[in-house]
């Protein structure tokens, strides 16, 4: 059975001359994609940016667009492709903030496009041994941080990043310039198929779309837009990779570049980005962690987890529980402060703290301070 809401969402993207920004205007003012098709011409013409041409396209192109949408929905169901309209909760939030973001995305796989940490890794198609080593090292160093790796499924650095992510057990998404049913280059099909169960394949292009040259820069804006940071490993100065870096920079996204041999053509791009202050130098995972404040996030998360720890009341007496609750908030506290905060007399507190030390929950520190260990 056809999902009417999705039918109109897809149909709206099939109208000639109606791009992402006009689509958002139509949905915003008409309340829904179906509302845009149902609106009389007079109402459409009152919407900012909607002129006679667009109003005519909606009115006269509706039937053809709906027929095309039916076919898209049929193919999506047959090929297990998820259709993500920009209002969908599964649509990448990072990308949604960008003015020229696609209205509709096609996703194959199980990727969470709103994963907490997403990093793009891009580079030349002619990767050197150094580029391969660095790419694999970046992925391995990011493994403890549960990062999703995004790239373009292309030869060179892109496929090396996908492959390393698969080996490291990290989710990875390939953003394609073709339709969801066309893997390009075909030689990477085996990796693409593995990614379906450990990430996925993403595109804004409808079924049957060939990867024509103009579609690659458009593809690059998705790579840049859906990530927290884009890392350029290797690229010539006139490489398409630098287009991705420029797009990310224009979106006020973080960009990093791996410094390279000044005699190597594929190091010209990263070195130029660093020299022109368009990218921060990536020399280790710590550079990325500090740039994105992951260290502060992790410390905050750890403190929050400890603050919400609960203790089995049956294992502690009332005085011990009061002391533990004080240390949950402060993590480390001076003995006199523990006494008045927990309302446990100092004369009794020493034995309470000693008991908690024996249980391995509290540790005595210099200066009559005590720290919670769990």
Structure description:
The protein is an alpha/beta fold and 374 residues long. The protein has three domains: 75 residues, DNA polymerase, domain 1 (Orthogonal Bundle), CATH 1.10.150; 189 residues, Rossmann fold (3-Layer(aba) Sandwich); 64 residues, Orthogonal Bundle (Arc Repressor Mutant, subunit A), CATH 1.10.10. It is built from 17 helices and twelve strands. Strands 1-2-6-5-4-3-7-8-9 form a nine-stranded mixed β-sheet, sandwiched between helices. Strands 10-12-11 form a three-stranded antiparallel β-sheet. β5, α9 and β6 form a beta-alpha-beta unit. It starts with a helix and ends with a strand. The mean pLDDT is 91.
CATH top level of the largest domain is Alpha Beta
Helix/strand/pairing category: alpha/beta
Radius of gyration: 27 Å
Count of DSSP-assigned helices: 17
The averaged pLDDT comes out at 91
At CATH level 2, the architecture of the largest domain is 3-Layer(aba) Sandwich
Helix content: 40-55%
Question: β content, as a range?
Answer: 5-15%
The biggest beta sheet, please?
9 strands, mixed
What is the helix/strand order? HHHHHEHEEHEHEHEHEHEHEHHHEHHEE
Task: Give unreliable regions as ranges.
Answer: none
Strand order of the largest sheet: 1-2-6-5-4-3-7-8-9
The name of the CATH topology of the largest domain is Rossmann fold
Number of strands: 12
Q: What number of domains?
A: 3
Rough shape? globular
Q: Could you tell me how far the N terminus lies from the C terminus, measured between alpha carbons in angstroms?
A: 53 Å
